[in-house]
Amino acid sequence: MGAFSQYSGSSCKFATESYGGHYGPIFNGYIHTQNTSDLLRTHKFILNSVLIGNGWFDPLVQYQSYYDFIISGNTYSYYPYNSTIGAQVYNGLYGAGNCVNQVKDCTNRGINEICSAADSFCASHLEFVYDNVLNRDEYDVRELSPDPPLRVLRRLPQHAQGPSRNRRMC
Questions:
Q1: Pick from 54, 44, 89, 84: which is nearest to 70 by CA?
Q2: Contact in structure between 16 and 8 (CB atoms under 8 Å)
Q3: How far is CA 138 from its chain centroid?
Q4: SS3 of 98, please?
Q5: If you placed Cys at 115, which of 2, 93, 106, 127 could pair as Cys (CB 3.0 to 4.6 Å)?
Q6: 71: closest CA among 91, 100, 98?
Q7: What percent of the chain has a predicted confidence (pLDDT) above 90?
């Protein structure tokens, strides 16, 4: 198999994150289809698993989860919204012409400008509430923003934080 023949008989794991919830299954479906076809002079690509971390697969489900996770309960017993913020977020999600309606319009019509506007609206009225109002990380409500929290970075040795600020030109 060319330059990496030592891997030709090995299986492979396909890992992706976030928007990979969309393209990961598509790529892997294509690989599977190619493996089952009878094309001459081709190698089989042995795929034994697909990993999708924090997969963004359906905007409607994802945006609803930002509200539902906090209001309907979560494993951390963390309920940060007071009634005013809760009502604003609910309206941003389910109010007439708001997030749910815009995402459905995007899905039905598939026009880039409509989809981009829907995503911007939903992000600012649902996702960004975690950062800007709650001061929490939307991926882990136990953590304060920024991500990673500065208290974690301060505990890391300098070499784990990346290059030092003292650089010189080559």
A1: 89
A2: no
A3: 10
A4: coil
A5: 106
A6: 91
A7: 22
Q: Contacts from 71-76 at CB under 8 Å and sequence distance 24+?
A: 74/141, 76/141, 76/142
Indicate if the alpha-carbon torsion angle 134, 135, 136, 138 is positive or negative.
positive
What is the pLDDT at residue 38?
A: 76
Q: What is the mean pLDDT of residues 5-15?
A: 75
Q: Which tens digit of pLDDT belongs to each residue from 36-48?
A: 887 777 777 788 8
- What is the C-alpha to C-alpha distance for residues 135 and 146, in angstroms, rounded to an integer? 8
User: What residue type is assigned to position 45 of the chain?
Assistant: F
Pairing relation of β-strands 47-53 and 12-17? parallel
C-alpha distances in Å from residue 66, one per residue of 13, 40, 61, 111, 138: 30, 49, 9, 25, 8
**Full-model pTM:** 0.63
Cβ burial 91-120 (10 Å sphere, 16+ → b, else e): ebbeeeebbbebbebbeeeeeeebbeebbe
3-state SS assignment for residue 108: helix
**Which whole-number Å values give the CA distances from 114 to 34, 56, 57, 95, 128, in the listed order?**
35, 19, 18, 17, 20
**Mean pLDDT throughout 124-135?**
85
**Cis-peptide into 163, omega within 30 deg:** no
Q: What integer pLDDT is reported at residue 119 of this predicted model?
A: 93
**Secondary structure element (H or E) that encloses residue 51, with its range:** strand 47-53
